[in-house]
Amino acid sequence: AMAEERTLAMVTCTAPVNIAVIKYWGKRDNDLILPINSSLSVTLHQDQLKTTTTAAASRDFTEDRLWLNGEEADVGHPRLQACLREVRQLARKHWGGSAEDVAPLSLSYKIHIATENNFPTAAGLASSAAGYACLVSALAQLYGVEGELSEVARRGSGSACRSMLGGFVQWQRGERPDGRDSLARQVAPETHWPELRVLVMVVSGEKKPVGSTAGMQTSVDTSPLLKHRAEVVVPERLELMMRHIRERDFEGFGQLTMRDSNQFHATCLDTFPPIFYLNDISRHIIALAHRFNAHHGHTKVAYTFDAGPNAVIFMLADTVAEFVEVVKRSFPPAANGDQFVRGLPVGSASLPEELLAAVVMEPVPGAIRYILHTQPGPGPQLLDDPSQHLLGADGLPRR
């Protein structure tokens, strides 16, 4: 009877997006995805941004299959296969020789995976980090393995290892050539800094000019600034950033976040041929943030940009309403006025004349598609409610 019950096993997990405040750019090993420097990120809340993944295994499945946002996709992707292999290896180790009797399911069963994002994949938000963190969490639950999973997620996408934890997360570069010490660890939980807020400003849904994987390889090969950054600048900044987070020092945190973003984009410019991820609107946002801070006489907002034009802006809760109003005046919404601000509610603010005069320059209508208001959040979650599975009892997508 026991064997009968295990003929179909299914689990569903969710996982978060993370935003690096000390950037990861450059691998020292492309197969194992080992970075040239450590990095530090903030995990964003899954109420606003999350990937959901259902993984199912059955003796009735004839082949491994994968669906992304409802469309069937290539299950043979080398990085996906690496994650599968690693989790199955952990399961073998964990359940030992008795695997077939005790393990939650047979390792020889084929699996079906369905995954979807609650945000547009084209929005240039790091969907691979949430995607692989979610895949690895679901597989680990399916095979009944615990323990160090950030190393497995790293094999899917480097930044995915950071999405395995909530709050403030360091990805330690590690020293070993086999990558066993290249892991994520939590610097502080999301509850540590309850006033911290995040605005994601979605600039354009265009595909990146240069993918991250190709871009960082060219940077490693050609940028002397990147080498200096990895060896000299980042180790010092990492210590400083952890201190700012521990002390909840927004001034220090914000300044360093902006400097590190700027330096990452400088290494892209120092790459040969140069890579441009920021566009005119990105630069407008940067200038706006500096004018806003100058007007207030201290750091109230801090921008950071990954490999794309979208801005992620950190601030404390008491700044959100005023800054959103400044953004609306600077980049008046095209048509979707009602849908312009999404996520957590934003209060209304009236702007003093002198702020308007000092901060808001000639408006650029329609330049920003929407703003998403969110906050730091927890790591991957297991969903208990079977109605939330993305696959039906037949192992095929529900909708």
Q: What can you see in these coordinates?
A:
Residues 379-399 are annotated as: Disordered. Pfam families: MDD_C, MVD-like_N. Keywords: ATP-binding, Cholesterol biosynthesis, Cholesterol metabolism, Lipid biosynthesis, Lipid metabolism, Lyase, Nucleotide-binding, Steroid biosynthesis, Steroid metabolism, Sterol biosynthesis, Sterol metabolism. The structure is a single chain. A six-stranded mixed β-sheet has the order 8-7-9-6-1-17. A five-stranded mixed β-sheet has the order 13-14-12-16-15. Strands 2-5-10-11 form a four-stranded antiparallel β-sheet. Strand 13 and strand 14 (311-316) form a beta hairpin. Helix 7 (224-246) runs antiparallel to helix 8 (250-270). The relative contact order is 0.17. It folds into two domains: 8-190 and 381-388, Ribosomal Protein S5, domain 2 (2-Layer Sandwich); 196-374, Alpha-Beta Plaits, CATH 3.30.70.890. It has helices at 2-5, 78-95, 99-102, 127-143, 150-154, 212-222, 224-246, 250-270, 280-296, 320-330, 353-359, and strands at 8-16, 18-22, 27-29, 34-35, 39-43, 50-58, 65-68, 71-73, 110-117, 168-171, 184-188, 196-202, 301-304, 311-316, 341-343, 370-374, 381-383. The chain has eleven helices and 17 strands. It is α+β, with helices and mostly antiparallel strands and 399 residues long. The radius of gyration is 22 Å and the shape is globular.
